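Exercise 7b. Backbone tokens:
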């Protein structure tokens, strides 16, 4: 008796996805709720769990195919052995060598041999990519994820250890008279590689272009002396971490300063729907986070009402789960204002693009010492450029400039955040 593996509900208004990768092969034993495939949607990667215990049957769709919600993509056969036909198609010769320095085929061999004894060898797309990039044997890496599965940090740690270890001399292989010499690339040869865009990358491209085509985009700038914020972090970081179990970062200050400025400039926190302007008495801050497959923007709900510690914990959790590909659809819905920190990558200044239907996005940048004039003297101060891109259909220049001035005042004198000034 066979049980269909069905594409689960993926979220409101999402009716289809792309099958990114099969995590199990025909003939593999599977347990109920164990991931068997990875789907790519417009926003996140979603793992499809097995509905029952059994043996993985033949897939009904291929990697890269578009599948609809509720469609059957494979079957699980009851029993402890795979059907004869499936086994004959997927079994590997016993003499197949396993080469730790090999490419994708090495991982497939390891997964076939692992079975239930190696659950951590069911690799997520981001982990599999790292294993291939660093030429690692996943069976030699200890997994720290759920059920012993490999995480991105496990692979990066193993890669670092491999680079630090001395490389033993490799004996020269015996010449094989039957082996044909590998073709050499001609000197100066120019190569190209074509890779299909993921559904997430296609959606990012589409939405950003729609924003440029629809909104009247404009960007205004200001700079901030970060001395006071850096001094506050230095003074309280140990006490903060001891009490809350999380490091005191910059984002808590910026989120709180943005909430203060948005209260004075409500148009920056508003949106356009048809011929109406929707004003929000709350601030749901979308935080731009870099993930393996592209930029995602999970949302801090009611940021105006949460503490510094809750903001820092939420952002740290978002970052970890974005790298692991486990953010959910609900966590990225909505948002009334976006903050994007390009400074972590070294950006000095930029013009970010708004995230529709929001009317504005704040760009943070790197902190660097620059000469400024204080009390008639030229001194060095840790300065950061701030950029506010906004929809000029809704936000006037006066409101945009005033918003950044409020941000600057709050960050240069963080006491304002405490007394709501």
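Sequence design result:
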């Amino acid at each position: 008796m066979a049980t269909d593996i069905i594409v689960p509900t993926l979220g409101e208004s999402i009716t289809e996805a792309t099958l990114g990768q099969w995590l199990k092969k025909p003939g593999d034993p599977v347990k109920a709720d164990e991931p068997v495939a990875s789907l790519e949607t417009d926003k996140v990667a979603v793992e499809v769990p097995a509905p029952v215990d059994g043996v993985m049957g033949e897939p009904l769709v291929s990697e890269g195919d578009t599948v609809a919600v509720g469609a059957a993509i494979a079957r699980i056969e009851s029993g402890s052995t795979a059907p004869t036909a499936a086994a004959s198609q997927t079994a590997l010769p016993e003499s197949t060598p396993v080469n730790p320095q090999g490419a994708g085929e090495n991982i497939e061999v390891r997964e076939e041999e692992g079975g239930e004894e190696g659950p951590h060898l069911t690799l997520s797309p981001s982990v599999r990519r790292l294993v291939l990039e660093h030429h690692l044997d996943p069976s030699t890496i200890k997994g720290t994820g759920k059920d012993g599965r490999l995480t991105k940090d496990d692979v990066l740690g193993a890669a670092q250890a491999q680079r630090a270890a001395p490389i033993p001399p490799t004996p020269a292989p015996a010449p094989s008279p039957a082996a044909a010499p590998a073709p050499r690339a001609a000197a100066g040869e120019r190569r190209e590689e074509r890779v299909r865009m993921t559904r997430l990358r296609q959606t990012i491209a589409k939405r950003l272009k729609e924003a440029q085509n629809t909104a009247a985009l404009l960007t205004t700038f200001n700079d901030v002396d970060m001395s006071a914020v850096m001094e506050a972090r230095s003074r309280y970081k140990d006490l903060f971490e001891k009490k809350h179990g999380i490091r005191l970062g910059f984002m808590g200050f910026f989120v709180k300063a943005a909430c203060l400025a948005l209260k004075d400039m409500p148009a920056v926190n508003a949106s356009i729907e048809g011929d109406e302007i929707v004003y929000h008495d709350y601030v749901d801050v979308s935080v731009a986070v870099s993930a393996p497959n592209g930029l995602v923007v999970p949302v801090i709900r009611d940021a105006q009402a949460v503490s510094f510690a809750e903001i820092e914990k939420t952002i740290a959790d978002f970052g970890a789960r974005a790298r692991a590909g486990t953010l959910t659809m609900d966590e990225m819905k909505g948002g009334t204002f976006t903050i994007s920190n390009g400074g972590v990558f070294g950006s000095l200044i930029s013009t970010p693009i708004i995230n529709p239907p929001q009317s504005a996005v704040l760009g943070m940048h790197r902190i660097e010492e620059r000469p400024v004039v204080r009390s008639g003297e030229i001194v060095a101060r840790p300065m950061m450029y701030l950029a506010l891109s906004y929809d000029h259909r809704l936000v006037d220049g006066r409101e945009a400039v005033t918003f950044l001035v409020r941000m600057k005042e709050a960050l240069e004198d963080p006491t304002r955040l405490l007394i709501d000034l």
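Instructor comment: The first helix runs from residue 84 to 90. Residues 212-419 form a domain with the Chloramphenicol Acetyltransferase fold (CATH 3.30.559.10).
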